[in-house]
């Protein structure tokens, strides 16, 4: 059996040349610039998809009309004018000089609608500036060369008339014709028709697209509100095209499944929490009945630590507990957190940037309080001073919790958001730390559509930043 050797594309083939062309840095740069200039929204892109073929089609029609219709009509009109001028020149040359040129001038005016004038012999004017649109100039010059066959000079720049001068042996004949005699001057009608039809088509397209895009925008708003833990609008219903209605229906079904899952998990965790707390309460009662010895005190400390870790585990598994977002005064919530954190042996300052009014956000109040309290508790465990700053920034509100503790190395700041992750350095030597405080805080922030990030404090410690959408 013959083995066919594997072939590689020829370096000079069209595919190779096209590949090298696409990979050229200049071409790549142009493609990137074009991609950045394109609209990002679906509405604008859909309009562009409709507008581009319309503009191209109108341009092709205009080009074909101008090149064929206008050129043909203008050539015929210019040919007729050139024939009339040639006939007048022939009559003028055959006319006896004793009769004078007045008879032929009257003939040109009355029968041919041409203003004719006999000028003294001399040189023709120098060529004037050519018009930008040279269809008439080119057509009339060609016809005069064909029919007159004498030196001539034309001026087609005027808006109303066209001037033609023909040099004879003993004189110069000057002819003035109206522009409509030599040129199809109905371009404004075509332009008005083209612009009018384009406006009508674009208006219909805009109205149609607006009705088609509106259900998609409402679906996006509903999904965004649900992702931030807010209720979707009550009037939200699957509307629009079939595919959009299917997507909206799938979203509603997904929302119902998630809510059902959260409710079931919350109910289960409530039962587990109740049973475990009952056992821990019995431990505490039994320890209270025993004598106060170092062993009982150590056992009581272990029970307290177990209860604290149990609360963290349940809070992590429970999440926001299905709490509904309601308008909340952020300043009042933070003042309440500062009061609750006064039990810690550290100084806590609250600084809120001045704004026009109170900062009111749709929040799951208890969940967000737990998240910020986790950050404050973490800062109080390792620092002596805590500063809480609040600053609105555009469509976001930024909450910073700074401490003067040992901080967290930059390479470890993402790892601490992993469940049960514990650092080995002094920041995390507390045995009671379950490794879930920051994880719970980030989950709660994300349920509001926000985020939690870590940085370096202005006091040299850790800075925890919660960003919440307005």
From TrEMBL:
Keyword ATP-binding: yes
EC class: transferase
GO MF term (any one): ATP binding
Residues annotated as domain Histidine kinase: 271-470
Pfam families: HAMP, HATPase_c, HisKA
GO cellular component entries: plasma membrane
EC numbers on record: 2.7.13.3
Family annotation (CDD domains): HATPase, HisKA
Keyword annotations from UniProtKB, A to Z: ATP-binding, Cell inner membrane, Cell membrane, Kinase, Membrane, Nucleotide-binding, Phosphoprotein, Transferase, Transmembrane, Transmembrane helix, Two-component regulatory system
Transmembrane segments: 42-66, 189-209
Lineage top rank: taxon: Bacteria
Catalyzed chemical reaction(s): ATP + protein L-histidine = ADP + protein N-phospho-L-histidine
Membrane topology: Multi-pass membrane protein
InterPro entries: 2C_sensor_his_kinase, HAMP_dom, HATPase_C_sf, HATPase_dom, His_kinase_dom, HisK_dim/P_dom, HisK_dim/P_sf, Sig_transdc_His_kin-like_C
Domain HAMP: 210-263
Protein name according to UniProt: histidine kinase
Organism: Hyphomicrobium facile
